[in-house]
Amino acid sequence: MNGQPLTDQAAPLRLGTRRSALAMAQSGMVAREVTRVTGRPVELVEITTYGDVSREALAQIGGTGVFVSALRDALLEGRIDFAVHSLKDLPTAAPEGLVLAAVPEREDVRDALVSHEGLGLEELTEKLAGAGRETRIGTGSPRRAAQLNAWAAAHGASVVTTPIRGNVDTRIGFVASGELDAVVLAAAGLNRLGRAGEISRHLDPELMLPAPGQGALAIECTGADTALAAALATLDHAPTRVAVTAERALLAALEAGCSAPVGALATWHPGSGDGPPELQLEGVVGTVDGATLLKMSANGPLVLDETAGQQAQALGHALAARLLAAGASTLMGERAR
Ligand SMILES: NCc1[nH]cc(CCC(=O)O)c1CC(=O)O
Question: According to the UniProt entry, which residues carry S-(dipyrrolylmethanemethyl)cysteine (predicted)?
């Protein structure tokens, strides 16, 4: 064999990551997996992204990869060997010069409520209504606000959604301090931080469709090191990759960014008889005040072969076309073209 010199093989691989507790936790998990499949040590290289330093509301700055661009620059400049992102923070446009080497198996896709006294939405709003006041729920996400407000309207509950930002401690801190009655966070994040015990209730996707790609990670590299790309590819989980492909195709076709009030969830179901499994894609678009929620689903048999990605994209595009025909773009607000 005349592969790379031994010293290179033994050199640590450089994993680029954001420095938040959540990013470090999920990057640490990926690092252990990469060491397992390559036999090489992995060192974490902390990169500060614009999303980490800007105090602007995400709804204002989001949609253009504010958590991602600095990591991609580091990849393209050769300062790191691969990057780990939360898939839901990745813009849908494929970046020049980079490959999505792997989408590992997804964590819990659901959003979670962390509330005063651990109450569920119904009990919480009823209790506070009894005390003569509205329920204040913190979330910086228009998608979550839209669906919370729609739930409140349907249940005759008085809910006020308040934009918040910050890391998990900051957000949960608003509930602990009594400033807010509840906050909504991704269950996957709390699980990966070992803080699942702080979840009061998981929100059923019926009530709260997650963000496209929620709960999944993305491992990105340049592909120049083909041996590394091949090793990373062994961490790919095809059912997850195909599901998030459908969700992201829907998002892309709606021309919505990660900060738009759009939810999507693709789930696998057994096919009929001997047929292939079915991929079901649900999508929601709404107004932040929850006055209108447009919710639709599409499904189709899908074989997990080399055309699976295209089939999933077609499913996402078809659902987007139906949502747009029903007026989705008006709901999301006029977009620059
Ligand atoms: N927008 C920030 C972000 N990106 C990914 C997650 C959670 C983890 C995941 O979805 O994989 C979070 C925090 C949150 O939504 O509570």
Answer: 258
